[in-house]
Design brief:
The complex is a heterodimer of chains A (279) and B (281).
Chain A (H helix, E strand, L loop, with lengths): L10 H33 L3 H4 L13 H8 L3 H32 L5 H12 L7 H11 L5 H25 L3 H9 L4 H30 L2 H6 L6 H7 L6 H33 L2
Helix pairs in contact in A: 1-12, 3-12, 4-7, 4-9, 4-11, 5-7, 7-9, 7-12, 8-9, 9-12
Chain B lengths: L5 H28 L9 H8 L2 H32 L5 H9 L6 H12 L4 H8 L15 H29 L3 H9 L4 H12 L1 H16 L3 H7 L6 H10 L4 H25 L9
The chains are: A mainly alpha (279), B mainly alpha (281).
């Protein structure tokens, strides 16, 4: 739409403008990618190279750092815990959040605004801080230092997103489809499972992945609530001042990889989810 | 099932969950902050605010937010408008720009540590260009400016994407007709941005700023990874109270202070960027 501007008489200026535009885009892409590339170099170098100077600017494809990471005491357990907590968070936040998203999109009921306010309120709070009182509560109930206990806190983080995102997704499916199914003999439940669910499933998967990433990346609550069963983020944080550089970089790399894949997997939904979840 | 009851049944799990894990802990943390064993007291607050590090911690956190958020807002707006007029490669560029969205603050801190540490890439580049002859230790207490800069860059690198996503979604909601009309009347691209994009983007700007500012006050792992204890921030001190000093009352007081700042700024943003009543796209 900007192509039809008044400066059609000055092709040189247009050309120059286009050039500035393209190089700005390229520069901003590099701004995101180059630091990641540096991390990749460090991860794929031997521990000796990581601690040496000057640094090479191409990776030497040595698995020394990653092997060291895998053999470091407790690291693999931490990795396993991270995956477990994130998977539990994913399941719980969707199982609990999606019905509410459906209710918000399909029904008008008393207290709807109040409920939305509760959901939005959680976004205005630094939620990880709530891990502090929960630590005490968990000790009393025996949930302290367990994967499940931490997953509950991460679910609190992920649930507002799950509700708002599923609300947006369900709103995108016309009610008429469901009504047509009802007239053809479906009950509310079968209409939902045969008509709505297949349509919504990719979107639900995307928001589940989003919940997974939220939990996978969370540092503060994980560090507060776990002692023996540390997650990867908590483990890395705890050992920041003592662990050697190559261990930090390999750990950082392991943290980044799933995020890259997941963002790629949900990229189509990212904007649709945020567009409506905003309003 | 009864259609009048069904919505309540559907929202019940979330409501219960949030009461148990959001409202209840919030009450607990308040109780913890205002008591030291017997009755109501402000001792915890007095203790944390009178600690010599507290003003520095507060100043650092606010300063960082003040330095980072405006840059991120400008950058996200720039990126969003650039993407908006893109015809080819839009998806790829958007994917690349949103990668940091999935990266944890700890990982971001580690990534920028790879650049700024003594044998890191910045030093390698500087020695390659002959600016320095031996690697300099950049992240020390002698270079508070560089430590601040490193944390700033890591934050901008990591957290601009969240604003970008919200703004791109918001721009997508603005009807194209407005731009076409503006063009007919000869408005320049800059005018169109000022008079159409910015005002109509207000709800998205609001959300983006609130989310971002709250996250800025929660900054923790980036700082821990890059500077250790060189640059104390509120969240890091809270963690230290809980773990190193085992003083959960003081930690709770710190938590409430962070909460109070977050809420205050949320209200300010809501007020400043309020959408006029009845105004819709």
């Amino acid at each position: 739409m900007t192509a039809v501007t008044t400066d059609a008489a000055a092709p040189d200026a247009r050309q120059a403008g286009r050039w500035v535009y393209v190089s700005a885009v390229a520069l901003l892409c590099a701004w995101v990618l180059v630091p990641l590339y540096f991390l990749l170099i460090n991860t794929l170098s031997s521990p000796e190279t990581v601690n040496s100077f000057p640094k090479p600017f191409i990776p030497e494809f040595d698995l020394g750092s990653l092997t060291f990471f895998a053999n470091f005491a407790g690291m693999l357990t931490a990795l396993k815990n991270s995956v477990l907590v994130a998977a539990l968070t994913m399941i719980m936040s969707i199982a609990i959040g999606a019905p509410a998203g459906y209710a918000l999109s399909r029904f008008d009921f008393h207290g709807k605004e109040l409920f939305r306010l509760l959901i939005l309120l959680t976004r205005a709070f630094p939620l990880p801080l709530l891990a502090l009182p929960l630590a005490v509560m968990f000790i009393r109930t025996g949930l302290d230092d367990t994967v499940f206990g931490l997953a509950l806190v991460h679910t609190t983080l992920a649930i507002p997103f799950a509700v708002l995102i599923t609300f947006a997704l369900f709103s995108g499916i016309p009610l008429e489809l469901e009504e047509a199914a009802w007239t053809l003999g479906c009950t509310r439940l079968t209409a939902f499972s045969k008509v709505v669910l297949p349509l919504i499933l990719p979107g639900i998967t995307a928001s589940a992945i989003f919940a997974f990433v939220i939990s996978w990346n969370e540092v503060f609550a994980a560090a507060v609530l776990t002692i023996e069963n540390r997650t990867l983020t908590a483990f890395l944080l705890q050992n920041l001042d003592t662990s050697p550089l190559h261990l930090k970089f390999a750990g950082g790399f392991i943290l980044v990889v799933p995020a890259l894949i997941f963002i790629f997997a949900v990229r189509k939904y990212l904007f649709a989810m945020w567009g409506i979840a905003n309003r | 099932m009864n259609a009048r009851l069904l919505p309540y049944v559907l929202i019940l799990p979330v409501t219960l969950f949030l009461c148990l894990f959001f409202l209840y802990p919030f009450l607990l943390v308040s109780k913890q902050a205002f008591s030291t064993g017997a009755g109501f007291t402000l001792d915890n607050f007095r203790e944390v605010t009178s600690y010599w590090k507290f003003p520095i911690t507060m100043r650092n956190t606010l300063l960082l937010a003040a330095a980072v958020v405006p840059i991120q807002l400008a950058l996200a707006l720039l990126m969003a408008t650039m993407v908006n007029r893109m015809q080819k490669g839009r998806d790829l560029v958007l994917y690349v720009w949103t990668i940091p969205l999935g990266i944890s603050d700890l990982a971001a801190g580690i990534i920028w540590l790879a650049i700024f540490e003594q044998s890191g890439f910045l030093n390698s580049m500087m020695s390659g260009l002959g600016i320095v002859d031996k690697p300099v230790n950049l992240l020390t207490f002698q270079n508070p400016g560089i430590v601040f800069l490193a944390i700033m860059l890591a934050e901008i690198w990591r957290a601009t994407a969240i604003m970008l996503v919200i703004l791109v979604a918001g721009i997508g909601l603005i009807p194209k007709e407005y731009y076409e009309a503006a063009e007919v009347f000869g408005a320049s691209p800059w005018k169109r941005f000022l008079r159409i994009t910015l005002p109509l983007l207000r709800p998205s700007l609001q959300t983006a700023l609130i989310l971002r500012v709250i996250l800025a006050f929660e900054i923790f792992a980036v700082v821990a990874a890059l500077s250790g204890t060189l640059f104390p921030v509120l969240m890091g001190e809270t963690y230290a109270y809980q773990f190193d000093l085992l003083n959960s009352g003081a930690a709770a007081a710190m938590a409430l202070i962070i909460l109070a700042i977050s809420i205050a700024f949320t209200l300010i943003i809501l007020r400043v960027l309020r959408v006029p009543k009845g105004a819709t796209i």
